[in-house]
Structure formats: C-alpha cells, structure tokens
Specification:
Blueprint: H1 6-25, H2 30-43, H3 52-62, H4 72-88, H5 100-113, E1 121-125, H6 132-140, E2 145-150, H7 154-167, E3 171-174, E4 187-193, E5 198-199, H8 202-205, E6 217-218, H9 219-230, E7 231-242, H10 251-261, E8 262-269, E9 282-289, E10 301-304, H11 311-329
Parallel strand pairs: 1-2, 1-4, 2-3, 4-7, 8-10
Antiparallel strand pairs: 5-6, 7-9, 8-9
C-alpha cells in the first residue's frame, strides 16, 4: 500500500469525494465516477451533464487544485488508492490490482534487462486493467519507454486512459481482448499480471499451441503464448503467475511450448505475507524469447523473495539478483 504524502492525499480526497458525489446523485458507479473526475481535472472543467447543484459542488472541489503541482507518481498512486477503494465494492472478479511493492520490484527488473536500450524501448501489458502496473513501469524507467496496453473492461480502460493523460505518459491503450487475433508490431518487452482462469472462447483458443485438449483453456496460458508471439527475438517477458502454474493438468503443454520458444531464466516467488493463503501465492516468471545470440542461463534465478518491508533482507536479495544478472546474462 502506498504511503500518502500531502499532495497525493489532496488528490485522493478530490477523486474520492467527487466520485462519491457522482455515485450518490448521478448514474455513475464509483469507479466510473473516478474516471469522470480525472477527466474534469484534465480538461479543467466539469464535462458531465449533471444538475446545477452537483456541478457547483464539483467546481468547489476542483478550485483549490493545480494539476501541475502533482508529480506523476502522486497522480498514479492517488488513482491506485481510489481504484482499490472502488474495487472493494465492485462485483467483477477480474477487478484486481498489482500491489505497489510488486510494481516497483518489477520496475527494478525491467531496468536491469533494458539498461542498454538508451534509445528507448516499447513495453506491452496484455491485461492492463486500470494501468497501474504499466504506468509505474514507465514512470520508473531509466530509459525512454513507450507503453501499449490491452484491456477488455471498459471502465478500467477509461481509468487507465485518464490517469495516463494526467501523468503525461506516452501510452496507447486498446479496448480489446488481447487473446483475440491482433495485428500489432512486435515490442521489446512484455510485462503482465496475468488474469487467472478459464478462457470461454474455444474457437479463438484453438489457434494456440497451449490450448487444452478438452474443454476450456487457461487464459493465463494463452496470454503467455500471445506475449511470446508479440515480443521481438531476444525480448524479455515478465509475468506474474500463480505458484501452481506448472502443476495443473494443462501444464505439460505449456512447459513444452516454453522449452521450444523461450528461455526460462527465473522464477521469483513473491512474499507469502502478501497472500491470504498459500493457494493464492504468486511468482514472477522471467522469460526471454529465443533468437540469435540468446542463450540459456547456466543457473536459473530461483528464489523466494523476503517481505518487501524488510529492507535489509530485500537489499541482500537484490545484491544476489544483480550478481546473477551480471554472471548469467552479462547485464
């Protein structure tokens, strides 16, 4: 969870009060209201058709704010916290968000593998949600980066759009299921917090090598294959995956596919304290697409990450990981 500073808190209060007002008096859900409040802030005026009383109250909330005073991370984190609040009341099971500590750790890994991309690089998120992970990566990137994101949920996509506009981030967003056929240029990097579950569209899934022999295929397996097809040769992929990824009945096909098309460089188990039970535990899977000059690390990076609040243990772990990158991948 993000620790609030005064500017972030100021923006959080604005977004929260405005979204609650639109939810209470107009035909918006809280999450829809958040994107509407972000749009008002971006445009500098109330753009919704609302009653005069609500419009006056929205302007009262807006007047003290100067968007130029907020840093990109203030904006991202204020949206993150309000979206988390809204998700508690949402019924959609796919409404979840990558924890901030995981976003920052992934940013560290991305900066390691993209350190030599001084001229810039492209990064794709196949399930962008409200854009929190993708915008965190772009904000923390040490080299120029352009983001691309796919999201099937229209409410979350609009939140990502408004948040990235306010952060002035170079990001293209698409309202589309990324497992469907796409015509899209190859990217340098793929980072996705994979949605877990069965994919309902068997006609689309049958075009994939990792499809199930019978019944529905796992959407997270299909998305792993889509990412490998979407990244350039030698490009890296970071997926947040369930700890049981290689233990399910569909796992052998996935494992065979990965052995043929990618190098499995590492699996970093996220701290157990982040999850309500071992069954919900997740890891970061690090892959590299096969290509000219790409070789398998002699020793894969396998580790159980310490609690992100344990700074000493985390520093020790990052020292180990830095040494691994240097020895195994020359990065």
């Amino acid at each position: 969870m993000s620790v609030m500073n005064s500017k972030m808190e100021e923006l959080f209060i604005f977004l929260d009060k405005g979204a609650s007002l639109l939810e209470e008096h107009e035909s918006f859900t809280y999450l829809e209201g958040l994107s509407e409040m972000g749009e008002n802030l971006f445009q500098g005026e109330v753009v919704q058709t609302v009653t005069p009383e609500v419009k006056d109250r929205l302007y009262d909330l807006m007047r003290p704010l100067d968007v130029s005073e907020f840093s990109k991370e203030d904006i991202r984190k204020a949206f993150q916290l309000t979206v988390l609040k809204g998700m508690k009341g949402a019924t959609q099971p796919n409404h979840s968000m990558t924890p901030d500590a995981v976003c920052l750790f992934l940013s560290y890994l991305v900066n390691k593998v993209m350190a030599k991309a001084k001229g810039g690089y492209s990064v794709l998120d196949l399930a962008a949600g409200s854009g929190n992970l993708l915008t965190a990566l772009l904000n923390q990137s040490e080299n120029p980066a352009k983001g691309f994101g796919f999201e099937v949920d229209e409410t979350l996509l609009k939140l990502a759009f408004v948040s990235s506009n306010l952060q002035e981030i170079e990001l293209e967003l698409f309202h589309k299921d990324s497992i469907e056929p796409l015509t899209f240029p190859e990217v340098d990097l793929v980072v996705t917090d994979l949605p877990i579950g069965y994919y309902p569209h068997d006609e689309i899934a049958k075009e994939y090598k990792v499809k199930a022999d019978e019944g529905h295929s796992f959407s997270h397996h299909l998305m792993i294959e889509k990412g490998i097809n979407s990244v350039k040769e030698g490009g890296f992929l970071f997926y947040i995956v369930p700890n049981f990824l290689f233990e399910s009945e569909q796992a052998p096909k996935l494992h065979a596919y990965l052995k043929e098309h990618a190098m499995i460089h590492g699996l970093l188990q996220l701290p157990k304290t982040m999850f309500t039970s071992d069954n919900h535990g997740k890891s970061i899977l690090m892959l590299q697409k096969k290509g000219e000059g790409v070789s398998q690390a002699k020793q894969a990076l396998l580790a159980e990450l310490p609690s992100f609040s344990n700074k000493t243990a985390l520093t020790d772990m990052m020292t180990r990981i830095n040494k691994w990158f240097e020895l195994e991948l020359n990065l």
